[in-house]
Amino acid sequence: xxxxxxxxxxxxxxxxxxxxxxxxxxxxxxxxxxxxxxxxxxxxxxxxxxxxxxxxxxxxxxxxxxxxxxxxxxxxxxxxxxxxxxxxxxxxxxxxxxxxxxxxxxxxxxxxxxxxxxxxxxxxxxxxxxxxxxxxxxxxxxxxxxxxxxxxxxxxxxxxxxxxxxxxxxxxxxxxxxxxxxxxxxxxxxxxxxxxxxxxxxxxxxxxxxxxxxxxxxxxxxxxxxxxxxxxxxxxxxxxxxxxxxxxxxxxxxxxxxxxxxxxxxxxxxxxxxxxxxxxxxxxxxxxxxxxxxxxxxxxxxxxxxxxxxxxxxxxxxxxxxxxxxxxxxxxxxxxxxxxxxxxxxxxxxxxxxxxxxxxxxxxxxxxxxxxxxxxxxxxxxxxxxxxxxxxxxxxxxxxxxxxxxxxxxxxxxxxxxxxxxxxxxxxxxxxxxxxxxxxxxxxxxxxxxxxxxxxxxxxxxxxxxxxxxxxxxxxxxxxxxxxxxxxxxxxxxxxxxxxxxxxxxxxxxxxxxxxxxxxxxxxxxxxxxxxxxxxxxxxxxxxxxxxxxxxxxxxxxxxxxxxxxxxxxxxxxxxxxxxxxxxxxxxxxxxxxxxxxxxxxxxxxxxxxxxxxxxxxxxxxxxxxxxxxxxxxxxxxxxxxxxxxxxxxxxxxxxxxxxxxxxxxxxxxxxxxxxxxxxxxxxxxxxxxxxxxxxxxxxxxxxxxxxxxxxxxxxxxxxxxxxxxxxxxxxxxxxxxxxxxxxxxxxxxxxxxxxxxxxxxxxxxxxxxxxxxxxxxxxxxxxxxxxxxxxxxxxxxxxxxxxxxxxxxxxxxxxxxxxxxxxxxxxxxxxxxxxxxxxxxxxxxxxxxxxxxxxxxxxxxxxxxxxxxxxxxxxxxxxxxxxxxxxxxxxxxxxxxxxxxxxxxxxxxxxxxxxxxxxxxxxxxxxxxxxxx
RNA sequence: GCUCAGAUGGUGGAACUGGUAGACACGCAGGACUUAAAAUCCUGUUCCCGUAAACGGAGUGCGGGUUCGAUUCCCGCUCUGAGUACCA
Length: 934
Description:
By secondary structure, the chain is of the alpha+beta class. It is built from 29 helices and 36 strands.
């Protein structure tokens, strides 16, 4: 029979499901290998052709590892809490759980069609109570923990309480809020429970804090920093504003240094690590306290100094002004009566500017003088305090010491407002711009005059410490992550409130189920949707937390749940975690670089600190699959003399001769840029009687690479491809498209080449009448050579994730075997095993036809490479003259270099090229090349 | 601006440690089969010169360098894509 992909694929997909072929063993003598895909959010649009790219790669790898004798864990699930289902609920009233369920069904159907070898018995859904019970449980562990800097790990809060009880707050080195109390053991014991809890909250790894948040009014929720792009929400593109709110936060900053260091131990793409490094943003410098000059005015100030962070404390004698952020808490009290109008006008002006304007405006200098001064702590010099929006409230202390000679922004500011610029290094050139050099010797710098950079820095820091005006400090750009959304469709936070303070619900009450509500909108009083739930109180009367967890909560630990997905006693058993340990290969998009991948590493480190998991890093090796871009096709409408569009369309090659305007056309009715005119006429009524100006009898469309989107008619659905060519072709074609990590436009041109290849492979097993038949004769040398070439090639390619090159090699192998008229069982059976990770359905069918037991292919041993079959006794040496290849000459490989030289020089054709001359030099690389210098 | 990645035929791409540039596939052209079309198969296909072949010349974004030999290594530049952005 001819290659009937539809029947074959259906048959084997059913077989795999019924027999649970890919169920991973929990206990095994085989080595483990964990291949993980980033699980999808099941959107209503279904899977598009870009999604499976990574899944196909990981599936090939997983199948390959099984053939290589590994016990492979290759699971799939759904990140099923999220905004779209809730937005849909707001519009239609349909419960998000129903929408989600429907979407998951679509995803599952689509995934099954592609023939993935997932172990579905371990499926997880973050929105299922069995799952989010453990997300809530991990939240509770975070609430019950603090970060001990001395031990450099997260620890149980009980330890902290015990310390307070015996020693008070002395000797505690913790990552905590700024305003902690200092107390003795007896004072602690004298605190009311209320006071104690209030104090402990300042240490907990998840805590409540009033902070400035990214508030998105359109979505009615707070967004994390990584969910905001250029002042707009990443999802939906709505404007985002800054707002003060009391929010749950995660003390991820406690782990900043470990998150940074850990990057050096994992095999991730360098750009991705770089993104995390930038996000963490470590900078080493010093914090300096500038005493406020209270001599003149505003004696009412309750703070004595302004603290700044600087990476160039050596430039402290070049400070000619201080700049604080307009939002800085001291602005109001520092402003003198005379400057009040100026300052207020400036603040009003910055408030109006959106973040986007502020960036576009980066070149314009703006600011206002508060009227107050600080004193340089080292020489007592009076320094004016300004406000300007180039100083960000959220970074460092929201205040900078301005050194115009060394910093370009400070320089522009000084020039604009006529402030002094002081040279501090002898070789500094500050005529037209700031010079940030660290070279040369200091001048105008008091006790560091004449010193060099390193020495000067150390000297200044020592002096500041001595007079208690500053110290060396490491600063991180990363902020604590906000952990609450004013939304319905997320995990409820397992917390209730008593006397204004949060308490965990009892563990036995987990999971805290999401209550039913009448509408998925905030309450009339502006509370989150959970405020609508009736009788939703803890133990009869206590109010629950009404915000839910953010989208990243459920995805920050899901790889552990796959290890032991049905466990109802623990998030995963100790046994399972000790066996599977961590993810060996993780494939997904780079868009999660600073979100999911950072939070996951954070939670993992925390779980490791509590000794709940065994590895410090969760994902040993990570690969980013490239983005699949859209590839739009265009037709060109002829414009008449009056500038009106006509119903005549001009083929792309001729548009220069006419006046035309481009129109997007559905890529599904275009093949190799040739428009299917019949389908086009049916596509939309307006084109039913369109006329065409053709070239060579065809209408050729224009092409452009754009985002894949419905409005551009360039979305390709994998279902359509599978319908036409089958899943095996889709799998191989997606790999054939190019290197996995490269972004590329989706382009169906060329898919037939892959389909033809599979058919050719099928034909090796069949005669001209499509009857199955293989021979049991001993394989020939040439056949064995082809086979062992491909064994080696696939091993090498898969190990380095170069899937595109092995597809080419498969084609070469099949072309060779076809030329050899090979129908040898021994050869073909090994071919089936090798190809099975790429094209599993056709291989299962052939495996079965070859007389093997159904379902044994997935665990068959990968053929062993034997180098002997590749040994050649001759090599066709390229003979080049001055590096240019001229001819090939076959020479026995048994000859040594001297003999090769002699053979080459004795050759008549070589002599013809040499034209009587003697080569100056003769380079012979055995088995590679001969080069003559003439 | 900064950081990272990349640039190879008409197209997607290959060439792994410096050693025959363009594998494999698409497209295109020609041919076979067919009444015809589709499907299938065969041949050719980097560019230039030449009717064609032999042959010759150029050629991996641009300019230089190292080397017997460079798509690969080094220096400078251009362009494209991604990330990031007043980070003190």
